Amino acid sequence: MPKPTGGSILSSGLPPLSPGHIFGTDPVGNDIFSRILHGGQVSFEVGFGVTAIGLVIGGLLGMAAGYWGGAADAVIMRVLDIAIAFPALVLALAVAEGLGQSELHVIWALSFFSVPAFGRVARGATIALRDRTFMLAARLSGTRGPRVIRRHVIPTSRPSC
Fold first, then answer.
1. How far apart are CA 94 and CA 65, in angstroms?
2. Cα-Cα-Cα-Cα dihedral of 72, 160, 57, 139, to 10°?
3. In angstroms, rounded to a whole number, what is the distance separating the alpha carbons of residues 135 and 98?
4. DSSP for 98-131?
5. What is the pLDDT of residues 56-109, one digit of tens each?
6. Which of 1, 27, 68, 123 has the fewest CB atoms within 10 Å, i.e. is most exposed?
């Protein structure tokens, strides 16, 4: 089939910064910017999912280790150290292959390796708060550990914007 020639706007596409098409169009007339946004959806979903799961699980593990200390701290941190010791991407690919081909499986496989980093940061923030006066008052008033973590550690240790 011969290519169209001449003054057809579809033969070469619109150049970048054309009105209504910030990145221009391809030779078929498709908007390049919308194609880039559509192609980036999966990457955004995976990145957001991995970060969210790592933050929640790692944050809770780190806060528990920092709050209770002692044997709980030692066990939780050694498990996180073992997770850090493995080559993350290679093992994540193996886990994702074992689970099956799915975006959700890739998210879970990669999340496993973001947990230790969040856990260490949360542990450090919790240890810094553990001996503060308001934490001592909460413990002396008979408040149990999970409630102290939920009501005092989480709001105090998160960054302020």
1. 29
2. 30
3. 44
4. HH-S-HHHHHHHHHHHHHHHHHHHHHHHHHHHHT
5. 999 999 999 999 999 999 999 999 999 888 888 788 778 777 888 888 988 888
6. 1
Token pair recorded at residue 150 = 């939920």
| Chain position carrying tokens 């969040």 | 118
Tokens of 43: 């990457």
pTM for the structure as a whole: 0.74
Task: Please state the length of the chain.
Answer: 161
Cβ 26 vs Cβ 44: under 8 Å: no
Query: Residues of 94-115 as b/e, b for ≥16 C-beta within 10 angstroms?
Result: ebbeeeeeeeeebbbbbbbbbb
